[in-house]
Amino acid sequence: MSAMTGVRVIELAGERVAFAGKLMADMGADVIVVEPPGGDPTRDYPPFVDDEPGENRSLYWMHYNTSKRGVVLDLDDPDGRDQFRALIATADVLIEAEPRHRLAQLGIDYPDLEKIRSDLIHIAITPYGRDDPQSDLPATDLTLMAASGPPWSCGYDDHTLPPIRGQMQATHTACHFAMMSALTALLFRGRRGTGQFIDVNMTACSNVTTEAASYSWLVDQQTVQRQTGRHASVTPSGETQQLCADGRYANTGVPPRQPREFAALNSWLTEIGLVDELPEAVFLEMGANWEGPFELSKLGEDDEITAIFGAGRAALRLIAERVSAQDFFMGCQSAGLAVGVVNSPEEAFEDEHFKARGFQVSVRHDELDRDIVYPGAPYALRGSPWQISRRAPMLGEHNEEILGSA
Fold first, then answer.
1. What is the pairing mode between strands 196-201 and 93-96?
2. Is the pLDDT of residue 405 over 70?
3. How far is residue 197 from each of residues 109, 112, 113, 168, 178, measured CA to CA in Å?
4. Is 0.85 topped by the overall pTM?
5. Domains in the chain, ordered, with CATH?
């Protein structure tokens, strides 16, 4: 049984809430996405199947609405609001990202809905929270990320280049918080029998992902600086990204810190015939025979620890120079070392490791007379299976099925 089997979720369709609904639906919840007449605008978002725009061809819509059922309701119409209230009477969770006062003006906000379903869990996602007037201002994922801080920490050593940010990162982060909040609230309801209103602040959600950046400023008024392929830091750290023999880059990651890791790296270096090209190899042997904890806090102070740690980094760089990025990655995995190849999204999706763990999921689309391969589970839970149970709904596809029985 999936984690949310038996839970009914009503989702008011929108870009900022769709991923939360997808997470819940793919974890077994009966998610009903409610669209306005004419459909949610994201139905027309690119990219499209075969790069051809058209009805039911948006890959964006398909991805963010897997496993959901869909209805069309006009909430601006009294009859539509009555149908919505009837849906709420059957629901456990409502998730929405509406403007702050819209639902209250329509008479269907939490104080109204809890009279219909006293144990309802209502989750609202807004840019700065329901009580902040800034949430009424125009905002995009880009402006929310800029306001919350993560882009400052993301980019390159060359600060003439602008910061970078992840696509839909503010939205995805807020939706993860919404998902976690829903699970927590359901557990609480199971103990106390009561619902609650949950206010998800998108900016605050993203800000708590800045790790040391916010704390460095709040505690010590210091500003971290972005670095290529590694954590932003007040004090610059050594470069870790390496050009490999095939012209691709890899992050050399975390050098050895345990004797077994030094031993594995030294054996790999010997196996591919490079040990004689590394004068520092003797320090790898010292690391392999190190007794007691390897105290990284003494780097720069203890000559032996500094030399051994530096040898690990030097060995990784030398190997990366001589082999392909993929061979470097696989070799480090075999040696128990944490590294990463700089892959494009397409390359990552086709990675054999991802395929082996079932990340590629084929979903049937009868309307297109074909299967489409989707990215699969963001997590693998042994006791609570995840699955895409159906393709995204067509506009109003389940109106009769759902509204007739709501």
1. unpaired
2. no
3. 10, 12, 11, 25, 11
4. yes
5. 8-209+360-403 (3.40.50.10540), 249-341 (no CATH)
